Amino acid sequence: MNKKASIFGWGVPVFIIAFIIFISMTSNQISGQVKGQWETDFLQDSYLPAKQTLLKNNIIAKNVGAEIVWELSNNGGFSKESECGQIFGKNVWNKEEQECFPPINTNIVGKAQEKLSRRNMPFIDVSFLFTFFVGQSNVLPFKSKHGIYYHQNTFMVDLGYSFDEYTLLIEQAQSLLSACRDASDLKECLDLNKEDYWKYNICDSTSEYTETNRKVAFCVVSPNIYVVQNGMKNEVVTYHFALDFTPSSPGEVTEFKATSVGNELTIEFPQLLGAEKYSVYFTDYLNPTPGERKKSQQDVFFYEKNWQSVDLANPVENQEACDVPEKRAYDTLYLCNDLLIYVLEKPALTPLKYTITSWKKGKESAIARWDSIE
Asked: Where are the domains of the chain?
């Protein structure tokens, strides 16, 4: 037995019992009428209008359900802006490690009640079961000269779509975030790990990878190829949202260079998104290798030779100093178009090796490489 039949199968016996009771209670009113006339009038004036109401309910509910499907999918499952904000006009499902996934059950029920009320169809209970949109309200009376006919005000329509699909999309989003959040080449990681029906930005042939500050916009084609009426057309459902792949741990500083002029040393390296500060280490150890620090900053540096370190934070934006090196002050970190520049007195170490690490939330990155300064 299908679910629709199981839910509404009680309708026929209930109507028959109600009809018999109604006839027995009104038998004194129909004496003298042509046999069958009262029954015909009752069906026409009470029963059929009730059935017309149910048919109207189903038609309106079908349209409302389709509206909800598309409004939510176009808005990333939200009925308003995400707490994590928007990017490229799309709601973001996370902000760094904070999750802002849409509360789908709350949103669909709230939208359904709002839309039905605006159509003068308030329902006590609405729900979405598998692909069915179901509503139930108070018992509705239909009055006529033959008496009062009571019927349950309900609807049940098959949308051909299940909101459970959001559960799958959220699971896939969490998997992508786990795999690619700390990836140095974000697009390469996403191309390798995302499903084929996860498109970038928009779902057509012009779709292109779009990223800003590690936030990426997606358009995901329904994994189950659900087709729902959208205006005058039937279309495959698509979901629009964005994800934030800001690294959860400090990234390694892989690119840096130093220029030495006399006793003055200028170090340049790109700013890393999310890094709170940087550390520059100098040593005269001949062959330092990359890796983790083995001791805290207060302890002896793990290379058993002379070493020095300096912490860099709070970069200054000064275009004049960026354009004119002579305007740069010692021991000041400058931000020049995403490039960090630091000038200091050259350490008196021979040979002179140096490296840079980044810090985030009290964690220091690994050492990517060491370089020499002449």
From this structure: 3-244, 257-373
* Count of C-beta atoms within a 10 Å radius of residue 289: 9
Q: Residue 111: which of 63, 169, 158, 164 has the closest Cα? A: 63
Q: pTM of the predicted model, to two decimals?
A: 0.65
* Tokens standing for residue 298: 């207060």
260: amino acid identity, one letter: S
DSSP class per residue in 13-61: HHHHHHHHHHHHHSGGGSTTSPTTHHHHHHIIIIIHHHHHHHHHHHHHH
Q: Cis peptide leading into 290, omega within 30 of 0? A: no
Q: CATH number of the domain at 257-373, out of 2.60.40, 3.40.50, 2.60.120, 1.10.287?
A: 2.60.40
Residue with tokens 């090196």: 325
What are the tens digits of pLDDT across the range 77-113? 998 899 999 998 899 999 988 999 999 999 999 998 8
Q: Of 282, 279, 255, 252, which Cα lies nearest the Cα of 269?
A: 255
* Helix spans in the chain (H): 3-8, 11-25, 37-42, 48-74, 104-118, 165-180, 186-193, 319-323
Q: What is the dihedral of CA 267, 268, 274, 279, to 10 degrees?
A: -10
264: enclosing H helix or E strand: strand 264-270
Q: Is the Cβ–Cβ distance between 287 and 304 less than 8 Å?
A: no
